[in-house]
């Protein structure tokens, strides 16, 4: 009860602790022989720890990098409504199902439409990726998609145990971002049979790490489930809002799943 | 003692020459699909290297051996679809490196 009260107080009085995250969450991070080759995916814009939804317009792009080729998958997405238990109304997110046809690494990526955030007086665009492996061929998880900004994994991004170190490099227009700041959040619905996590205070909601001079960062996931990494930069361009040019926060977001070793 | 070490080193070097792929990645994989009545099987290590001259066995749904073949230099093997039922393809690359792929009946008409 006390924990729930703390969480409620955090939600009410510490809005700055909430980090926005684009999310592409597949039903599984590994598809093996004998398993269904139909892979459901959800595409959201959320506060992962609090499980708050934000309204998400139909993405600008939803695609796949596989075997060195990029494929447009936007037609697969259908709008769905959802909300957290604390939220009063429903928000739009997106759902699709992709059928795996061949072995290999599948990097799904999303470029959302700009999201206007009045509290920060800016637009937000999170270029979001996730990689799953199919049928044992590990051929391209370390390949960049070529997005405006993106995280390229240096650790194979699937088959991770809890407490494994995940390493990645932050790129902006294809070049490393020295000392990039990366926000890390746990998707607080993805633990395998564990109760939902109640952070003891604001800073526990979003972990913050800095990349080195080459834009490389490391983080060890302390719990089973999906973990999001968001490296934020300010775009060199602006977008108009009510006749005024506004800055654009562009995020490179990457999701990985960790499993307990038990 | 040095002579023993030298023998071991030479032995390991010879082994790595005979089995170069095993030093890189051990798990063998197999994938198969059907196109116009022909079954195409591909066998590979996780890093994409083909399983060369791997023994490939095809079993029917009763686990009866239907045919046996060998993958080529690209890790490929193909055969005419013998019958419209679940088929299990087994790749055996030797030294315990083995895996299988179930080609389901509903996927035979692609």
Count of the separate structural domains of chain A: 1
Which CATH C-level class of chain B is it? Answer: Mainly Beta
Broad CATH class of chain A: Mainly Beta
> Would you report the number of β strands of chain B?
7
Helix content of chain B: 10-25%
Q: What is the radius of gyration of chain B computed over CA atoms, rounded to a whole number of angstroms?
A: 17 Å
What fraction, in percent, of the residue positions of chain A are helical? under 10%
Number of strands of chain A: 20
- What's the oligomerization state? heterodimer
Shape of chain B: globular
Please compute the radius of gyration of chain A using only Cα atoms.
Answer: 18 Å
Strand content of chain B: 35-45%
Ends distance of chain A: 29 Å
Structural class of chain B: alpha+beta
Low-pLDDT runs of chain B? 11-24
Assigned CATH architecture of chain B: Sandwich
**Beta-strand proportion of chain A:** over 45%
Give structural notes.
The complex is a heterodimer of chains A (about 260) and B (about 110). Chain A has a single domain (about 1-260), classed as Immunoglobulin-like (Sandwich). Chain A is mostly beta strands. Mean pLDDT of chain A is about 90; it is low at about 5-15. Chain A has one helix spanning about 1-15, and strands at about 20-25, 30, 40-45, 50-55, 60-65, 70, 80, 90-100, 105-110, 115, 120-135, 150-155, 160, 165-170, 175, 180-185, 205-210, 215-220, 225-240, 245-260. Chain A is about 5% helix and about 50% strand. In chain A, strands 2, 5, 6, 9, 10, 11, 13, 16, 17, 19 and 20 form an 11-stranded mixed β-sheet that branches. Chain B is an alpha+beta fold. Chain B has a single domain (about 25-105), classed as Macroglobulin (MG2) domain (Immunoglobulin-like), CATH 2.60.40.1930. Chain B is about 15% helix and about 40% strand. Chain B has 1 helix and 7 strands; from the N terminus they run αβββββββ. Chain B has one helix spanning about 1-20; strands at about 30-35, 40-45, 55-60, 65-70, 75-80, 85-90, 100-105. In chain B, the strands form 2 sheets. A 4-stranded antiparallel β-sheet of chain B has the order 4-3-6-7, with no helix packed on it. In chain B, a hairpin with a 5-residue loop joins strand 6 (about 85-90) and strand 7 (about 100-105). The longest helix of chain B has 17 residues, at about 1-20. Residues about 10-25 of chain B have low confidence and may be disordered. The chains are: A mainly beta (about 260), B alpha+beta (about 110). The interface of A and B includes residues 33, 136, 138 and 139 of A.
